[in-house]
UniProtKB/TrEMBL annotation:
Protein name: HTH marR-type domain-containing protein
HTH marR-type domain location: 25-172
Keywords, ordered alphabetically: DNA-binding, Transcription, Transcription regulation
Organism, as annotated: Erythrobacter westpacificensis
SUPFAM superfamilies tied to this protein: Winged helix' DNA-binding domain
Domain of life assignment: Bacteria
Gene3D superfamilies reported in the protein's UniProt record: Winged helix-like DNA-binding domain superfamily/Winged helix DNA-binding domain
PANTHER family: TRANSCRIPTIONAL REGULATOR, MARR, TRANSCRIPTIONAL REPRESSOR OF EMRAB OPERON
PROSITE patterns in UniProt: HTH_MARR_1, HTH_MARR_2
UniProt entry tagged with the keyword S-adenosyl-L-methionine: no
Pfam families, per the entry: HTH_27
Length: 172
């Protein structure tokens, strides 16, 4: 299914190709994926709310999710910087990249589309989809169909996934 680009879009893309480094263009693409996911979900920030949970380790992580997401973002950024110095194929940890992305989005109350998470994994789509299936089998993530578009599925961390990632981030 091809898309014809407008003259304005081609001009913007040409400018990006001339002035930006590949890593900057990839960051822009990831941001656009997140924006599309947010628009698809009708997310505006006001619908983000905490659910009461009995005080326990998971509750502590949920209360501190924004700070832990900041740590996850720093880890993610450092992982991205490595790609400037070492071939990406040598640094491949698609499942870890996906879990970091899901935790960062969890802190903001957002779910992530399968397509967006595949992109965040830095792996071929078929490889990323295998990891998504494995993470789902391990009950670290859950999949939900979009209510407005049955072709789209969203992924989010399960409580087990939040606990695993949050516990790691608390220690590092």
């Amino acid at each position: 299914m091809g898309t014809t680009l407008s003259r304005e879009t081609r001009t913007i893309l040409d400018s990006l190709a001339e002035d930006w480094k590949p890593a900057q263009i990839r960051d822009l693409a990831a941001t656009l994926f997140r924006l599309a996911d947010s628009i698809e979900q009708g997310w505006d920030g006001s619908n983000s709310q905490s659910i009461f949970r009995w005080p326990n380790r998971l509750h502590r992580i949920e209360r501190n999710a924004v700070n832990l997401a900041w740590k996850a973002k720093c880890i993610h950024q450092n992982r991205e910087k490595r790609r400037n110095f070492v071939p990406a194929a040598l640094l491949a940890e698609p499942a870890w990249d996906m879990l970091l992305e899901l935790f960062m989005q969890y802190a903001g109350g957002a779910k992530v589309s399968v397509k967006s998470l595949c992109h965040a994994s830095h792996a071929p789509a078929t490889t990323a989809l295998r990891y998504i299936d494995e993470l789902e089998r391990l009950d670290l993530i859950r999949r939900e169909r979009s209510p407005s578009d049955r072709r789209v599925s969203f992924l989010s961390l399960t409580d087990k996934g939040v606990l695993a990632m949050g516990s790691y981030l608390e220690e590092h």
